[in-house]
Design goal:
single chain, alpha+beta, three-stranded antiparallel sheet, Thioredoxin_domain
């Protein structure tokens, strides 16, 4: 398992459209996922210890962001042949068990992850209402272990700002996680 950091935010880069199957059996795209104030695109997976350490916080934060008009979508781009935990069936199981309030999509060809420049799980891309990139940073100070509940909510605070002003913070701390398992 290789630990990787995300690049810095390239402000105003447009979001890239996708047509991916979700664990709900439906095909989702950028327009169907976007909220009135923006969209958080998350590259996650089931097996990664960095994702496991924050998944409950992701669920909590995305529910709170939805109330601000900012929707979220999670994309799993790993090669499931390397980790059975990342299979479509296990994605369905985790989404149901954890009660995901956002679509969880399978990027079977890995083309979406490559188009976005995703490098690790978790990798967060926060877009404003015009689908222009405003955040590419971490959720919080958690790593392979969940940080204390008192830590700054980097992603939530940044995306709340995006939802209300259309612009993300200039200072952002990169996300860190397991490298995407490329085919």
């Amino acid at each position: 398992m290789i630990s990787t950091q995300t690049p810095i935010c390239d402000f105003n880069t447009p979001a890239i459209d996708f047509n991916l199957k979700g664990v709900d059996g439906k095909i989702h795209n950028l327009a169907s996922c976007k909220g009135k104030n923006g969209l958080l695109v998350m590259f996650i997976c089931n097996h990664c210890p960095y994702v496991k350490a924050i998944i409950e916080r992701i669920i909590k934060d995305t529910k709170e962001l939805k109330a601000l008009g900012l929707n979220a979508v999670a994309i799993m781009s790993n090669n499931p042949k390397e980790y059975e935990a990342d299979s479509f069936e296990n994605m369905q199981k985790i989404a149901k068990e954890m009660d995901f309030s956002f679509p969880y999509l399978m990027d079977k060809t890995q083309e979406v992850a490559k188009a976005y420049g995703a490098v690790c799980t978790p990798d967060f891309f926060g877009y404003n209402t015009n689908l222009a990139l405003q955040y590419r940073g971490r959720l919080d100070a958690s790593r392979k272990e969940t940080a204390l509940s008192s830590v700054k909510r980097d992603l939530f605070d940044a995306m709340s700002q995006v939802a209300t002003t259309g612009q993300g913070p200039t200072k952002q701390i990169p996300s860190m996680g397991c490298s995407i398992k490329w085919k």
